[in-house]
Amino acid sequence: MTENLYGSYKLLFNTDADPVCAFAPGRMNIIGEHTDYNGGNVLPAAISFGTYALGSKREDGLIRVSSLNFPEDGLITFRVDDLDYKQEDGWANYPKGMFRYLHEAGHILPGGVDILFYGDIPNGAGLSSSASIELATGVLLSSLFNLDVERKDLVLIGQQVENEFLGISSGIMDQFAVGMGKANHAIRLNCESLEYEYAPLMLDGYSFIIMNTNKKRTLVSSSYNERRKQCEAALKQLNKESNVSYLCQLTPKQFEASKHLIGDPIQRKRAKHVIYEHARTAEAVKRLASGDLSGFGQLMNESHLSLEHEYEVTGVELDTIVHTAWKQQGVLGARMTGAGFGGCAIAIVKNEDVVAFIENTKKVYKEVIGYDASLYQVTIGDGAYVCNKKTMIKK
């Protein structure tokens, strides 16, 4: 598909000029689930699926955007001096928000732009297609107009688009992984302080497989808010003997000594997952640094079991696909990834067993659930970048 993007761009905008191309990946969170809003670390990585944005400058103030993923929407047009959110603009509000907040940050664009988007991130898979659109737009505009904007600032502007422009209460992990990713590395990130380090992810004959349950995540918003309140309530009880701002400031040993303070058994389970998951994430970085992939895979398994039994955000679809994955040959570990209640899981699988793994896992999943799962082999790539025209890879 990507080799046809330049031709599609020229046809759509009736031009012979070559546009600038930017690419921003999707992301998966390898371990560290529901720790981010509890003061803990996450461990995401940029993946090989993502969003391409091809663009050229215009002399006027017109901005025209189109997406090959939404051909029915046609060409959506707005102006650099009219960047308010409009519901009828649909997906185009993501790039429009980037224009707006770049302007507000002092990066004034002297003219308009024509942009064509194309993404190969599976729709609805929870792999951060929105953050990918935002960062692809930001990197493209930075290149087109020679903007003096730091990458971390683009990341923060992407989050601002979600929180303020679109009214979505999301954290910084998605934009950070999409913008700051590094090939063959995960990122240990504290979402509160933005302290981070790269963790080597040398798979040595293994690959990540993304397993999309194709279950629409209908309960995420309400259940997410409920889990946050339960964590806050547990923290309040623990602080009868402690004085911490977040659950993740406690170690598993400290939790075990104080868990009797949490009278509600559900709140106790929620706190246990968060505190132990934070510890697993720290241990995962150590295992990766030492090249212990097998130990890393075991931590993934423990993470899923905790999300299944302590945090209770998996559901029959995710449990079926993960438990099935565990039984396949060549699998080091598997777990759900993302908020839960549908969406995706991930597995680390030996390369020579990937074909059989995909076939067997899909077969069992359809027998149990009644419809197909979608499985993809991915590599761990760089964060957003400007493409080379001929290869469509990083310049």
How are the secondary structure elements laid out?
Blueprint: H1 5-13, E1 20-31, E2 41-57, E3 62-67, E4 76-79, H2 93-104, E5 113-119, H3 129-144, H4 151-165, H5 173-180, E6 185-190, E7 196-200, E8 206-212, H6 220-238, H7 252-258, H8 265-289, H9 293-309, H10 316-326, E9 331-337, E10 344-350, H11 354-369, E11 374-378, E12 385-386
Parallel strand pairs: 3-5
Antiparallel strand pairs: 1-2, 1-12, 2-5, 2-6, 3-4, 6-7, 8-10, 8-11, 9-10
Helix pairs in contact: 2-3, 2-4, 3-4, 3-5, 4-5, 6-8, 8-9, 10-11
What features would you describe in this structure?
- The protein has 11 helices and 12 strands.
- About 40% of the residues lie in helices and about 20% in strands.
- The chain has about 400 residues and is of the alpha+beta class.
- The chain has 2 domains: about 1-200 and about 380-385, Ribosomal Protein S5, domain 2; about 205-380, Alpha-Beta Plaits.
Report on the biggest sheet.
8 strands, mixed
Number of domains: 2
Mean pLDDT: 94
CATH names the topology of the largest domain as Ribosomal Protein S5, domain 2
The number of helices is 11
Rg computed from alpha carbons, rounded to a whole number of angstroms: 22 Å
Outline the low-pLDDT stretches. Answer: none
* Helical residue percent band: 25-40%
Name of the CATH first level of the largest domain: Alpha Beta
Q: Name the beta content range.
A: 15-25%
Count all strands and give the number. 12
Short description:
Helices cover 39% and strands 22% of the residues. With 395 residues, it is of the alpha+beta class. The protein folds into two domains: 2-201 and 381-386, Ribosomal Protein S5, domain 2; 206-378, GHMP kinase, C-terminal domain (Alpha-Beta Plaits), CATH 3.30.70.
